[in-house]
Amino acid sequence: MKFGSKLIHNGNEIDKATGALSIPIYQTSTYHQADIDNGQEYDYSRSVNPTRKALENTIAKLENGDKGFALASGMAAIASVLAIFSAKDHVIICEDVYGGTYRISSKFFNRFDVEITFVNAADLEEITKNIKKNTKALFLESPSNPLLKITDLQACADIAREHNLLLILDNTFMSPYLQRPLDLGFDIVVHSATKFIGGHSDVVGGLIVVKGNELAKRVYAVQNGFGAILGPQDSWLLLRGLKTLKVRLDYQQRNAQKLAEWLDNHEKIETVYYPGLPSHPGRDIHFRQADGAGAVLSFKTKETQMAAQFMKKVKLAAVAVSLGGVETIVSYPVKMSHAAIPKEERERLGITDNLIRVSLGLEDIEDLIEDFNNALK
Ligand SMILES: *Cc1c(COP(=O)(O)O)cnc(C)c1O
Hints:
Elements: H1 3-8, H2 50-62, E1 67-71, H3 74-82, E2 90-94, H4 99-107, E3 115-119, H5 124-129, E4 135-141, H6 153-163, E5 166-170, H7 175-178, E6 188-192, E7 206-210, H8 213-226, H9 232-243, H10 245-264, E8 269-273, H11 283-289, E9 296-301, H12 304-313, E10 318-319, E11 329-331, H13 343-348, E12 355-359, H14 365-376
Parallel strand pairs: 2-3, 2-4, 4-5, 5-6, 10-11
Antiparallel strand pairs: 1-7, 6-7, 8-9, 9-12, 11-12
Residues 73-75, 98, 100, 141, 145, 170, 172, 192, 194-195, 204, 206 line the site of pyridoxal-5'-phosphate (PLP).
């Protein structure tokens, strides 16, 4: 089956108990155990819940993985993955990783002696140079946030295989529709399901998919032990959001392509960062490993102070953090998502005061372009 059909028919869409076409919200903490001598699958909702399980099985199918896990947020998912490592283990993470991932790895897991090195993953030599005896994993993001830098995932998979490393990808920007890292040789995929998977800016959630039984056991021990599980209501919202993932992204991606091209030709714009543009330096690598350019882009204005003014003048697009919703969202990284990074380090990463990020929604592109045009004027 192709991906769109799989979103609707993946074996988890019908409630086994009733035949309901929408998985019921099993709002229960515990279950009657009819026969206490023989265990039963459902015993307590931190361990297992039918609504959450339907979501977990669905995301596992969509990512072509063996086991899925639903957590309370994207960060809960990422933290739960990092929590499979032990003191003295070394993990290499790309330097332009999501801010929250940077924060927990440098300010939390380091207290438990998990050793972290941040590298520029676009430079494969820098990855191999930093591999040590105790290196256990490589944690990557592609495209990166907010500059849409591309990492060669296949090449990283080769490096990981050679050095026996676990390979982890934060696939939030692409979703399983556009990029399936497990097919490329990755072991673990994480998502902030708050973004494209939920898709409506109405739920915070996280997902993990792993390959193999042994990894599934390690991650389940953290999910059940830490207990940062996703509740049944929010699991249901993600199941509902997933059904329209393809139609939303197809439309949002078309909007992104059109806006990127329009911005690219605008006299007041310095650079547009979008893998769908021929000028994007990572374009060829990206389209080898993904089926589309996605619905997030960023751009830099020629005049620095214009970016902050644009944020005040834009009317139709929402000014907010987050992305992947039905509404177009513009954000100003230096004041929002990346405000905590010291200015010097930000500038080194290219996150300058004239940078704006856009997540395209489902509005008509003509209205968005008019809004952007007015704001730039
Ligand atoms: C938003 C985001 C996260 C964090 O997810 P939450 O659901 O906000 O906890 C992680 N990675 C990326 C790439 C994100 O965009």
